[in-house]
Amino acid sequence: MIITRTPFRISFAGGGSDLEVFHSQEPGAVISTAIDKYMYLTVKERFGDSFRVSYSQTELVDTPDEIQHPIVRECLKSLDIKKGLEIVSVADLPGQSGMGSSSSFTVGLLHALHVLNGHVVTSKRLAEQACNIEINILKEPIGKQDQYIAGFGGLKFIQFHPDGTVFVDPVVCRRGTWEELNRRLLLFFTGKTRRASSVLKKQKSNCDSRRPALRQLCGIAHQMRNILSEGRDLNAFGRLLHEAWETKKTLESSISNGAIDEVYNRGIDAGALGGKLLGAGDGGFVLFFCEPHLQSQLREALFDLIEVPFRMEPEGSKVIFVDGDRW
Question: Domain 175-307 classified CATH 2.60.120.560?
């Protein structure tokens, strides 16, 4: 039996520039962090040749081709897995909530299957394979940032180039800056989940007319990295988070809605300097940047939402258990 643990993520700025329709023409850039909320994948060899897959549903089939879960099916096919397996996923947070869960699932499952085959695999390879499965094979209208932050972990500045290369660089900052950023970030669940694909399809179709806004988001990602690396006043980071959210809303009308705007405005009125809805939009988790002395009144203002305490996670996908028979 093999168990992998793969982090979820928070993207601060630059989302949308990781879509191929943008970065095939000019470089994209995002600043993103893994967090200490995870997707767990358990893979165990099964007696016989059947496959049992447990997620929100349970499937029992004879061959990978019969599996209805598209990511599981394509991961097994990509690694030419034919012997029966039991695959179980458990997550700390709900899916379809803007935390990159589907890519964490893909990276974590690929990681476990590679270990099952006796392969040592790099974070880069996991991210590349996950992108190939989700974007090229399954034709999901998504970008590349989630797969890379799930594989690499940490606080990263990720660049996407027209030739298809992806550069993943750590945001180098003092320990005190890292800790203070952790202290000033608060995460709340709106109670609503949604599929990112519907919003992203519209966003992709609007890319040419929204290219200036996407360039602006890339620029904000660069500025955020510089603020953290230079150890400047973190409140400037919070204000940029607000600017990025206001810019992102111009990409597509369905990114936000009246209910999300009302929650966001309550947070700002209560003292937050900035924030954003995570993921493609229309539901999920809302992130706020708020100075510590104002956080109590922020929590009071958002009393009807579920707060999820978290910290940034320095590690990407990792194997946390391998049974003794394997080694």
Answer: no
Q: What CATH number matches the domain at 2-171+313-326, 3.10.129.10, 3.90.1150.10, 3.40.1190.20, 3.30.230.10?
A: 3.30.230.10
**How many Å apart are CA 80 and CA 100, to the nearest integer?**
26
Q: State the number of CA atoms in the 13 A half-sphere of 275 facing the CB.
A: 29
Residues paired with 58 in a beta bridge: 54
DSSP 299-316: HHHTTTSEE----B-S--
Tens digits of residue pLDDT in 1-60 = 999 999 999 999 999 999 999 999 999 999 999 999 999 999 999 988 899 999 999 999
Per-domain boundaries in the chain: 2-171+313-326, 175-307
pLDDT of residue 322: 95
